[in-house]
Every structure is written in C-alpha cells, then in structure tokens.
Amino acid sequence: VNKIKNAKLVLLGDVGTGKSSLVLRFVKDQFVEFQESTIGAAFFSQTVVIDDTTVKFDIWDTAGQERYHSLAPMYYRGAAAAIVVYDITLQASFARAKKWVQELQAQGNANTIMALAGNKADLLDARQVEIEEAKKYAEENALFFMETSAKTAANVKDIFTELAKRLIEA
Ligand code: GTP
Ligand code: MG
C-alpha cells in the first residue's frame, strides 16, 4: 500500500543563515553563492519517500529580516515540522535561533516536530558556535539537531528525511 502524507514545514532563523539555500539544495540540488534575501516568504514543494509512505512537504521559507517577524505566525501555525536555522560562524544567529524555539514553544502548535540546523558547517575555520553547545541545547529542548551545509549538501537531505520519518511515526 502506498500512503501519502502531506506535511507543512516552516524554516525560521536569522537573516542570512541559509534557510533559502537549504531549501534550494533540498528541492533542486543547487547552491548559489549570492542567494537573494527572501522577501516575506517563499513556497516550495518536495517529496520524500520512506518505505511505503510518500511524505509531501509544503515548505514555507520565511524571511529572516526583522521587519517580517510579524508574518512568521502565519507560517508556523499549523506546521507539522519546523527547522530553526543558525549559522555556525555567528553566535548571534544561535541566540536568535533560541528565540525562535522559545516563540514556537510558546505560540506554536505543541505537536510541531522541531529540528535545529547549524548551517554553513563547511566554514569550519570561522566557527563560533561549538557543536557540543548546540547539541546540549537541542537535547534540553527536545529538538532534533544536525549541522548542515547547503554549499556542500552535507546533511541537507538527511535533516528533511529525518523529519519525514518522525512525522510518519508521530
Ligand atoms: P534571508 O532570506 O534573508 O532570511 O536569508 P536566508 O536564511 O534565506 O539565507 P540565504 O539562503 O539567502 O543565504 C545567505 C548567504 O549565505 C548566501 O550568500 C548563501 O550563498 C550563503 N550560504 C548559505 N548556506 C551556506 C552554506 O552552507 N555554506 C556557505 N559557505 N555559505 C552558505
Ligand atoms: Mg531566504
């Protein structure tokens, strides 16, 4: 039997952390050095097949610029899954990610499966956020955590696939 599961997924995180780049890598397997900053939000669709289930993600790639903050609830409300993205080379983006997690915990749907992505993992020389620090935070907040690179594609498919698995199990 082939089952189809539709799932709304939202990406949240500071400006320039690589939300759009992660989506572009996942949906089109492409990367661009000069990705334009998102205005409002962008919509994408992609499927993941897990055994006999096709998970169809409706993906909302939100804009990280602060002036769009008030739009975010429209995208995370009713989301089955959320990926909160920070940039491993910017401690401030990790602080912002924690704020997003808090907001989701307070205002979002309690059933939303949340992942934390430490993106730009290819930029090891510029690292400001230690993997252990992020791992610990993720464990304390029941988030699923991975470091990713939209540039090299490392862990990008994996994070979406893991979310799909958890959605099927939920
Ligand atoms: P907003 O839409 O403004 O919120 O930003 P965003 O989170 O969508 O970031 P975006 O995908 O636009 O990426 C910002 C910049 O970081 C772009 O120049 C990307 O090329 C670059 N970038 C994104 N992901 C990676 C990555 O994994 N590694 C490296 N080295 N650069 C990346
Ligand atoms: Mg963007």
TrEMBL record:
<keyword id="KW-0653">Protein transport</keyword>
<keyword id="KW-0547">Nucleotide-binding</keyword>
<keyword id="KW-0636">Prenylation</keyword>
<dbReference type="GO" id="GO:0005768">
    <property type="term" value="C:endosome"/>
</dbReference>
<dbReference type="GO" id="GO:0003924">
    <property type="term" value="F:GTPase activity"/>
</dbReference>
<keyword id="KW-0813">Transport</keyword>
<comment type="similarity">
    <text>Belongs to the small GTPase superfamily. Rab family.</text>
</comment>
<keyword id="KW-0449">Lipoprotein</keyword>
<dbReference type="GO" id="GO:0030139">
    <property type="term" value="C:endocytic vesicle"/>
</dbReference>
<keyword id="KW-0342">GTP-binding</keyword>
<protein>
    <submittedName>
        <fullName>Ras-related protein RABF2b</fullName>
    </submittedName>
</protein>
<dbReference type="GO" id="GO:0005525">
    <property type="term" value="F:GTP binding"/>
</dbReference>
<dbReference type="GO" id="GO:0012505">
    <property type="term" value="C:endomembrane system"/>
</dbReference>
<keyword id="KW-0472">Membrane</keyword>
<dbReference type="GO" id="GO:0006886">
    <property type="term" value="P:intracellular protein transport"/>
</dbReference>
